[in-house]
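Lecture notes, unit on protein representations.

Consider one protein chain, 85 amino acids long.
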Amino acid sequence: MLELLGTIGGNIIGLPGILGVALGMMTRRLWLGAMMGGLIGIVGTLLFAHWDFANVATTELLIAIVVGLCAGTLGSAIRIKGATV
């Protein structure tokens, strides 16, 4: 359980979370922000696994993608809400 929570927390404050929000804030389309965040989740996981799928656990990749999707969508929502103020 602690390993799962650590993986989720590490992805939120790591590359998929922060870069996902940053890339999501570059667009006003929610789907595009989510797609860019998910792509960052995949690339970040593979980057730390030295570009080898054999070194990537399925749960780590899945959590990174989900966190990236959520972060990208959040970034787009921030951009949309900030533009209407």
